[in-house]
Amino acid sequence: MNDSIVQILVGSLWAVLAVALTIAIIVSLFRLAMLTWGIQENKVAPEPPIPSPSVVDSVPASAGVIMIKTTFHVYEEAKQMANALLDQGIIASGQIVKIESRYWWDGQKQDKTEWELTCLTRFELYSAVETFIRDQHSFLVPEVVAVPIIAASDQWASWVIEVTTAP
């Protein structure tokens, strides 16, 4: 055989081996990632177990409680909103704190002192609180953000649920 043909064959063999080795490394890394993330090959994820009544009964009262936040440029408006929401019975409490806000509005970065109202209520009252805030707020686009309470004392959470009423 001619030396140039042998060199081409050897070069081709090295190229094939390099591709095979690269594929083997990728497959190994993929399998390692699957093991790391708890994914098993060719297996369907099992159905989650149906909770027994004792598990459902032990769900903390805080599971139905949320915080809703909104902001105002003027303290008096925040205070009036908190009182109006309390009078409607759709929040258990409203806490007002002074904050420094940075945000974009009309293409310009804003740097404002604002008043943040944090309301505590039941999850099912979110829509009523949001609608009330949007209807009464002086902002064109008021912030209305809900955050679930993932843990709280049962006594406190029960109080929030007891003192709020359906609209």
Concise account of the structure shown:
This protein is α+β, with helices and mostly antiparallel strands and 167 residues long.
In terms of topology, how is this protein built?
Blueprint (H helix, E strand, L loop, with lengths): L2 H34 L16 H5 L7 E8 L2 H14 L4 E13 L2 E15 L3 H11 L8 E4 L5 H10 L4
Antiparallel strand pairs: 1-3, 1-4, 2-3
Structure overview:
There is one protein chain. The protein has helices at residues 3-36, 53-57, 75-88, 126-136, 154-163; strands at 65-72, 93-105, 108-122, 145-148. It is of the alpha+beta class and 167 residues long. A four-stranded antiparallel β-sheet has the order 2-3-1-4. A hairpin with a 2-residue loop joins strand 2 (93-105) and strand 3. The chain is elongated. 17% of the residues are buried.
CATH class of the largest domain: Alpha Beta
User: Strand sequence of the main sheet, in spatial order?
Assistant: 2-3-1-4
Would you tell me which CATH topology of the largest domain applies? Alpha-Beta Plaits
Inertia-based shape: elongated
Structural class: alpha+beta
Quote the average pLDDT. 82
Give, in order, the helices and strands.
Answer: HHEHEEHEH
The main sheet comes to: 4 strands, antiparallel
Q: Uncertain spans, ≥5 residues at pLDDT below 50?
A: 51-59
The number of distinct helices, counting runs of at least 4 residues, comes to 5
Strand content: 15-25%
Helix content: 40-55%
Tell how many strands the DSSP assignment holds.
4
* CATH architecture designation of the largest domain: 2-Layer Sandwich
Gyration radius, in Å? 30 Å
For the record, give the distance between the C-alpha atoms at the N and C termini, rounded to a whole number.
Answer: 93 Å
The total tally of domains equals 2
